[in-house]
Write a structure and sequence with these properties.
The protein is α+β, with helices and mostly antiparallel strands. The chain has helices spanning about 5-10, 35-40, 80-85, 185-215, and strands spanning about 45-50, 55-60, 65-70, 75, 95-100, 115-120, 125-130, 135-145, 150, 155-160, 160, 165-170, 175-180. The strands form four sheets. It has a five-stranded antiparallel sheet with strand order 6-7-13-9-10, with no helix packed on it.
Length: about 220
């Protein structure tokens, strides 16, 4: 139904995210495709009627929120073990986050019912207002990609990979304004190289013109 990269152009959330490269991890390894759709906040399913050769979009009421809190986590460092854990029918992404590296953030495992509201959304920036009574992980149904940084009340905070291919932000108790920005180091380095190149080229041009004028 959708063309390649149409999600980026028309701001439709595509499961694979947008990247010029093919991501190694796209769909979370869960027991069935419907559960993967729920984990990725897919509000609609493509329904195919083979007898009438007709396709339609049907709404779903089982998908997870785009942003929500969990207060329990586990660290599984082996990729195969992560896959087995998430494919277990008892895996409940609404209440636990699976990390492959230690997040170095303590949560007490007791549900708090915190809330997260997205106030603005663009390709390179997501703003939220959150409130939680206890330390928890803010889970986002967004494909993890290096270069994203979270700012909690203006203070930089890491964006972690959780549940195979999604994002999580450790958040302390209280009410916070959180902004996620795409700020890859490669872009900063490229910007500095470009700036230095422009300055160097300008200096050379000025020097050559000044030299010719003197002659």
């Amino acid at each position: 139904i959708l063309d390649r990269n149409q999600g980026m152009v028309d701001r439709i959330f595509m499961m694979e995210g947008y990247t010029p490269l093919s991501l190694q991890r796209i769909y979370p390894p869960v027991k069935d495709f419907d559960r993967a759709c729920d984990l990725l906040n897919a509000k609609f399913r493509l329904v195919v009627d083979e007898s009438s050769r007709y396709m339609n979009l049907a709404p779903s009421n089982t998908y997870l929120p785009r942003a929500f809190f969990v207060y329990n986590s586990t660290v599984i460092r082996n990729e195969d073990s992560v896959r087995a854990f998430m494919m277990n029918p008892n895996f409940e992404p609404r209440s636990i986050a699976v990390f492959e590296d230690d997040p170095h953030f303590n949560v007490d495992g007791i549900a708090d019912g915190g809330n997260a509201t997205i106030t603005s959304y663009s390709l390179n920036k997501i703003s939220l207002i959150t409130e939680t009574k206890k330390n928890g992980f803010l889970m986002l149904s967004e494909i993890f990609y290096p270069g994203w940084v979270a700012y909690i009340d203006g203070t930089p905070s890491p964006v972690l990979r959780a549940n195979w291919s999604l994002r999580a932000v450790p958040v302390k108790s209280g009410k916070h304004e959180i902004v996620l920005r795409f700020e890859p180091e490669s872009f900063r380095m490229g910007a500095w190289i470009t700036l230095l190149t422009i300055l160097s080229s300008s200096a050379v041009i000025i020097f050559i013109r000044f030299k010719k004028k003197n002659k």
